[in-house]
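Build the 3D complex.
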Amino acid sequence: MSDLLKLTAVEARAGLDSRAFSSVELTQAYLDAVTATRPLNQFVTETADKALEMAAASDARLAKAEAGLLEGLPLGIKDLFCTKAVQTTACSAILKGFVPEYESHVTDQLWQAGGVLMGKLNCDEFAMGSSNETSVFGPPVNPWSKDGGPALTAGGSSGGSAAAVASRAVLLATGTDTGGSIRQPAAFCGVVGMKPTYGRCSRWGIVAFASSLDQAGTFSRTVADSALMLQAMAGHDPRDSTSANLPLPDCQAAVTAGVKGLKIGIPEEYVMDGMDPAIMALWEQGQKWLVEAGAELVPVSLPHTRYALPCYYIIAPAEASSNLARYDGVCYGLRVEAESLDEMYAATRSAGFGEEVRRRILIGTYALSAGYYDAYYLKAQKVRQLIARDFETAFASVDAILTPATPSAAFALGSKQQDPITMYLNDVFTVPASLAGLPGISVPAGLSEAGLPLGLQVLANKFAEDRVYQVAGALEAAAGFTLAPPRAAGEVQ
Amino acid sequence: MSDKANLVAGRSGPFEVVIGMEVHAQVVSEAKLFSGASAKFGGGPNAHVSLVDAAMPGMLPVINEACVRQAVRTGLGLNAQINLVSVFDRKNYFYADLPQGYQISQFQQPIVGEGSIRIDLADGSSHEIGIERLHLEQDAGKSLHDQHPTKSYIDLNRSGVALMEIVSRPDLRSAEQAAAYIKKLRSILRYIGSCDGNMEEGSLRADVNVSVRRPGAPLGTRTETKNLNSVRFITQAIEYEVQRQIEIIEDGGEIIQETRLFDTQTGMTRAMRSKEDAHDYRYFPDPDLLPLVLEQALVDELAGQLPELPDQIRARMTEEYGLSSYDAAVLTEERETALYYEQASSGQDRKLVANWMTSELFGALNKAGLDLSASPVGPEQLGRLVALVSDGTISGRIAKDVFAEMFESGGEPEQIIEEKGLKQVSDSGAIEALIDQVLADNQDKVDDYRGGKDKLFGFFVGQVMKASGGQANPGMVNQMLKAKLDA
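Done.
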């Protein structure tokens, strides 16, 4: 592996600043890695020429000492973010060939900070899925998949982002998290995945799945890299009415601030049948690490946790059923011609949407229908408030909450596609915080018996991302997880 | 409570008509309700379309504060409750000129709650019509089906333009009341400046809910006739619908709750879709928008800046100037008219000026097809003309000729009177000479009159006036003629 690929984002920034290497050199090393990892199907659009152009521009700014936070760093962008003049598909047939005339707020911030676009990354269709298998481009392969063994899922929906960061095809990547779409794939791929507070990053220009839940976040190999990237991404945007006009706390400083004196909540409800014993063991290990670092453990109860999944699978599809109505074959995207307008809608949407997306549109349409609205959507909204209140109560007495990130390690592609419910269970530990709009991070902390990465999740109160980074930094330091996956660029394959 | 005057006769007895109206008023604003695109009428097809209006992926709505202010101001003008917290909902349905696949509207929590409008009718009666609510919503685009043999064209210029939907209580009892209601509502909107009220361009259009019932009976089944864009169409549609419903009921049939369309060519309504075919709009709060929260201070500020409204001016006209409430309603319908009247009648006989405006001026404008703003006779000129009548300089009849001349040439009344020598003759010697001449020329009729044919008196007056070229003071002619004949 090129030594450049081994650097963290923070290290690479320092190397660029000291002119140890140029952005063009760094970018070229990563472009080679993109080529080398093509079999993993991480990218849906590669932008090599643009990357080299942007890298050259970064070098010019570095030379003039006008460098931004992410100057010259190769980034991958989930294909849910609209990127000007670069195809954006949400990994759906209905948007194949769609080239936006605008740049999402988040990616615009990243380019202003000097980031270099390597290309668009694979994800589940409209971010609906937990294994990235609903992508019209087929799933990415988890770089932790072993030679001769089954191809493993990279998780979802941001599977391409997690895989690309893990396989060293990009240094940093964006993701979006609606019910766990950043934290779960990060855990499966052994990287750091951060979902900030709902409202922290603008949703403007991100293809919508469920508006009240969608939130952009980061993929990185270290906690410090995540904090660096978030600082570039976050910020108020008047074009998003739900964007918060609050300053981001100093997350980069928080990474090394330690957890001495912090109270860490351990929720009694985050245990489920059939959970990998290695995950239970890792959770206990994580608690021990934090105590050793000076934190105090506090048992907390989040009594409505078990209602979170059903609640989520009403609210998210309900919003999606309405958000996806715009893909109707009229203004842009796929159109399948037919005799009448209604037939054109049906033909276009049947051809353009995959099975899981169609399922969620149907569920959501049903949940909002006259006569069912009160029983489903309204009730789910009430449950959502109870879940949020559970966390409010807990955060009155603790600074952060520690949970496992997922109930299992990465599973084989194709193994859970038959039963949507088993698939939905993957989000059991991540969905409650999404419903409450809380920030959460997944930190790689150990390996399963099969040698697959496992993650721990840290949650904190709204807009307390610094707390998340404090605890994540301590876990990272204690766990010392620095392994590269077997199928990373340059590793023996 | 049924008002006998408004009952409609059927073959089998009287019916009471019950009408409620939903009016869509386009908000006067620079930009659309949730995007920065221009809200102007016209422009080339798709010239006023932002990424948000075209519902491009990832685009988000942001509320236009100017539209919110207009809705609050309108609510204040309707004496309505302003809701400090309101919520925008999505109304989901598919149509080619609705790019989002939903309309953002307000369903359960509108920005404005209950209010009322007072209407004044020609018979002198006044009625309070309840307003149920006013909410903000997006307009849709336009589908053009006649531009191509097999395709429809879509123009999104209207897509996302802010509308206020103003819903009345079913308090209207006749087409006349409905017409008065829409005129009054339009008037209030135009005084406030929140809607230009241009019905031809579609800035103001009404859906009319009509049902009939036997006096005192529970409400009948209603039909909704959509998208009426003139007072005349509203009146026609209601009258047609009332007759249609009465006939059905008298023939033993039942009214079907349905949406109907009005055919402007035939003046008839026809069924569009029945309740069974109605969409399930799957309303739910728009997760892209936070609840709209207003500060009471803003509402107070807007209330303080509201212009004088027609009812306030009408009250002054009836209480201080002694006008009938109908005349006052006519004079206050347009703010411009009220201002004209105030100016013309200042220091003059208020009632006389009102009569001159509602009969002569409006008649002449109507005939010439002119708006008041283009009137050749300005308010001060009209005021001076009325003053010349009041002080006896000219007679009322002569004044009409002078007015016609003023309207024609734009000249000043004094000058026209001077040039044409139209000044009223009030010199008793001159009038007496004229009378003597007329009596001498018609001795036979004088004898008849004295023999008991009283009716001939009018003949003598006419002859004297004619001899004076119309300029003799008619009061004096009457008085002096009577004295001479009866002597």
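The longest strand of chain B covers residues 13-26.
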